Amino acid sequence: MSDEATGPGTRVLAIVAHPDDADFKAGGTIALWTGAGAQVSYLVLTDGSAGGEDPAAPRERLAAVRQREQRAAAAALGVRDVHFLGRLDGQLSVDEALRRDITRVIRQVRPHRAVIQSPEINWGFLPDLHPDHRAAGEAALAALYPDARNPRAFPELMLDEGLRPWTVSEIWVVAGPRPNTYIDVTGTFDRKLAALRAHVSQTAHRSRLADEVRSQLAQQAATGGLGEGRLAEAFQVI
């Protein structure tokens, strides 16, 4: 399956650490996919309670705010199915329980394609070094292979919940050091920006948000050879 094959019947699952991660890294591409008829789901691993500009805001209140914001942002991109695991923001670690919980959602959604964060360090962009991002990538990768496809992994999912093994055909990695696929999102930039602005607690104070995002996407388009005036999101497709 390739990006060109995306259409009705295609199921995609984006697995990310925080609310807004999928929208910042892949929002334009996700809008293309949903526009072509694909069914896209989100799985957000943490509660997002370490974000925001007000240190006095209670973590529980911020977590609820960020969940609402993520649902609104997803809807702006055509995504209606959003799952939250609620792990504590800033303390995500790869353990058996996290792998099991991700595996559960993979078997529920049964995606053909997964979008995940890179477990590797990308020294080229400081925000990508967040330890939650790398932990999310490592846990998602382990859940995709071997856990979700292996009937001996977490047998209780099949025995108690009826969730049979599922193999995901493609993995699209964001924020990694070796992108090999550049998707032209020039036509969906406005929808991506609308999704980012739905994360009010994270972006309302960023007066240059549109310019910053456009600049990054333009650089990626140039790297991918898409031509002047184009905007692109970058992935390592496996």
UniProtKB/TrEMBL annotation:
- Top-rank taxon of the source lineage equals Bacteria
Quote any Pfam family the record assigns: PIG-L
Organism whose genome encodes this protein:
Streptantibioticus rubrisoli
Which Gene3D superfamilies does the UniProt record give? LmbE-like
Q: Which UniProt keywords apply?
A: Zinc
Record's protein name: PIG-L family deacetylase
